[in-house]
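Q: Start with the shorter request: fold the first protein.
A: Done. Sequence, then structure:
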Amino acid sequence: MRRDVDTMYLYATVFLLLVVILLTWFMLALGFELSAIQFNYPASGLSLVVFEPLFPLIPISWAITIFAFVVGIFGSMNEIWQENKHIKLALNRLGKASVVFFVLIVVVVSANYVAWPIRASHNGYQSCPDFTLLHNESFATAWVTDIEICHNDKVDAVLENSLHETVLRTNKLIENLK
């Protein structure tokens, strides 16, 4: 038995496909590079680095979007061909995979939250005290090789956000101040 396709499913599928394409373009152009930079900061040798515990969510959000797209496609196919047991089996397995996916997200974010500061400490970095550097950032914290950097007003003025370019500019200033 064949049913007519609801236009809402088609519009939602096309919209999600566009989101997947745009997000994939962003990830290939910038997202994976930013994540790698953040992950490698503790071994960078810079005088000042920034820790953002939510940074792993960039590639994870990309994976979630692709996963949602696949689930949406199979859900749409299930609406069209309701008696197809293969589609029902795929949806059942995707449901189980979503639980594993959620657990994996929690583990990756938690592991980054714990492991990054440990790696930074082993490479000679110390976290700046609260309300010194990056006091306007909710989640980002500055880590330095010399704690005096945290109390330098010039460094505070240059380090206005946690972007990588700002971190590099701040490190140039620190090198000039030495």
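Q: Next, the second protein, separately.
A: Sequence, then structure:
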Amino acid sequence: MTIGVQPLLGYNYGTQNLSRIRAALRKLTFLTIVVGCSLALVCCLYVKTIVSLFLKEPEALAIGQKMVEILVLTGPFLGIYYIASSFLQAIGHAKSVSLVSLLRQGIFLVPLLVIMDRFMGQMENIWAVILSDIAAASIAVVIAVWHYNIIKKNFAHN
């Protein structure tokens, strides 16, 4: 969904059609949040069924259920993260896209895993994924909005 909109954003960036970029981003953000929340709800309601498709041992099943219940909380945030990334790619800001790509797994997740394992224990490492996703999505949005405001000013002067 979020990657598929990249050509639309890129085309409208090239034609300096800011209103279509804004409309596409708004609709995509709404759709991403609705789908992310809906899928998270379905996963939470049917967590035991979903996890039992992959795990059979009671202890592993209990751990898997807890992990799924926690991980689905980031669904809407990840969608927004990918919207920001697709937008930055569409407008040709390679350095910003590279930074945004590194944020989630490299800059935030690895250090958080090390820190949280040391202070909270291995089972609580799952929260490092949540914190990493939320932090990366927040910074990606700030970077995307910053670039959006720059192109808005540039388009106004042309």
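Q: Describe the second briefly.
A: The chain has seven helices and no strands. The chain has a mean pLDDT of 90.
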